[in-house]
Write a structure and sequence with these properties.
Elements lengths: L6 H19 L11 E2 L7 E2 L1 H20 L12 H18 L5 H21 L2 H4 L10 H26 L1
Antiparallel strand pairs: 1-2
Helix pairs in contact: 1-4, 1-6, 2-3, 2-4, 2-6
Amino acid sequence: MKPPASRQELLCNIHARHRQFRLEIATIPASHFRQAVRLWPDHGLHADAAMVLTDVILWNTMILQFANDLSSGPLASYYRADAMLSRVDHLSSLFQRHFAASSLHELEALTMVGQARIVDSVARHSETSLFDPSVGPVKTLGGKIQCFTCMAYADALSKLRRWKQVM
């Protein structure tokens, strides 16, 4: 996906990712959403829909933190893609434990609240703060928000679709 050139384009891209995910979670059977399956035979990864939703809540939290952190800027090492992925790996089990008793409806609602907060945060930023012309398009705040959103939602959609196939 090419880096966005404007706040409106970024918002459209974020809305599209969020909409795809909402459509996919709307088809999750509430009676089976915690049924773990082995996603890929050659990997030992077992997952259920609740785990996928919880990881999206985690990603939404981190993207929102990134979008609102004006102190260090988008070039800070804390927000490099590898650093973000490492934190997701580290925090995922904590989030899984925290939301272990949550219903499908609660997880879906939290996902949507996170999505709305990200959209609101992006909408409050100026074009200049999102797309600093002195920085390459992929390294701007807007470019990184889109990158992290695409990474998180592509991974979640892939896992959720695979979970549905195997289940």
